[in-house]
Design brief:
Number of helices: 10
Largest sheet: 7 strands, mixed
Structural class: alpha+beta
Helix content: 10-25%
Number of strands: 16
Strand order of the largest sheet: 1-2-3-4-5-8-9
Strand content: 25-35%
Order of helices and strands: HEEHHEEHHEHEEEHHEEEEHEHEEE
């Protein structure tokens, strides 16, 4: 498996993108695929005798040349004993980063798409004295403001998904900036709200700066409705630079988070049982695909244990398919 051997890496314009895994964990197949019958989802995901499938914990590291930007921080190592019984606690992200020569002090920016425990667990660690401290001490953290407000008083249905130690100390210290939606974090990296999984979940859109268009594989809303899409489109002007390895080089990549958690969820109507607003999930997917498919965006999958990124395309019959990089 790629997440135990080498981390996938490619170049998008002037940015280097790498996937780093926090490991995999078991997840109930019925919850993972919601109303989709097992007779259908079992064709795409293998389950064990308990009906559990494997879910990945994929973080995206973006090297801009000046800053290291980490999107999502996995499950971390602070789960309660009760939660460990359900999910385990692989806690491999820091070790995988270290294997690539990346220390916590090397991370300049951390972006959380939302604040569920399996997306922001390594935001903080518990010190030897038992104090909650930032895992990445030099980093500026970013997360959706609406998500944080909801996490302060979640519903009974999803309260288990929120662990305040992952974000409250960062907000209180001022190290975490809360986003309205649509902001550009650094040149070439912006966020856009895609409601459905939660009301305020944000995707991270990466387009880099014009000038290069090569691909290299190896180890490793406060603004108008479509403004962040428009920025990405304008920055994605074709370049005549040669492509390597015969692969099609992306102009835009998008960490779409739990809107499309795996390649098995690319169909418009395939959502998770965890989605709070399943009809909005469908509408958000339509909105995303309206740009991602014709403009050939690279989609990064947060929970796919075998395919960290791919191009989503529509075949002649209208079926969504994932084309590997």
């Amino acid at each position: 498996m790629w997440h135990t051997i080498s981390m996938p890496r490619l170049t998008l314009r002037d940015l280097e993108l790498s996937i780093f895994s926090d490991g995999t964990y078991p997840l109930d197949g019925g919850a993972f695929f919601g109303v989709i019958p097992k007779v259908m989802w079992s064709r795409k995901a293998q389950s064990d005798e308990r009906n559990y499938v494997q879910s990945g914990l994929n973080s995206l590291l973006i090297r801009t040349g000046k800053q290291n930007v980490l999107v999502e921080t996995g499950m971390g190592n602070k789960l309660s004993e009760r939660m460990i019984k359900f999910y385990g606690q692989p806690a491999q992200l820091l070790a995988n980063l270290a294997a690539a020569g990346i220390a916590p002090d090397d991370i300049d920016i951390v972006i959380n798409t939302h604040l569920h425990f399996d997306h922001c667990g390594w935001n903080t660690i518990r010190s030897k004295e038992g104090k909650i401290v930032p895992t990445f001490p030099r980093a500026k953290y970013y997360a959706p403001e609406g998500e944080w407000q909801y996490a302060r008083k979640p519903s009974e249905r999803d309260s288990i998904s929120y662990i305040p130690d992952n974000y409250d100390p960062l907000v209180q210290s001022g190290q975490m900036t809360l986003l309205k939606g649509g902001e550009e974090i650094v040149p070439g990296i912006c966020v856009k709200t895609f409601p459905g999984h939660t009301a305020h979940m944000q995707a991270v859109i990466v387009n880099g700066q014009p000038g290069t268009r090569t691909i290299r594989k190896g180890p490793a809303s406060a603004e108008p409705h479509d403004a962040s899409f428009e920025r990405a489109r304008l920055a994605a002007a074709p370049s005549a630079a040669p492509e390597e390895n015969g692969a099609s080089a992306p102009d835009v990549a998008c960490y779409i988070s739990d809107l499309i958690p795996t390649t098995a969820h690319i169909d418009i109507t395939w959502g998770m049982g965890f989605d709070l607003y399943p009809l909005q999930t469908i509408e958000s997917k339509k909105q995303y695909y309206s740009r991602a498919i014709p403009e050939k965006w690279l989609t990064v999958f947060t929970h796919d244990p075998t395919v960290p990124w791919a191009y989503v395309e529509q075949d002649d019959s209208g079926k969504m398919v994932a084309r590997a990089v």
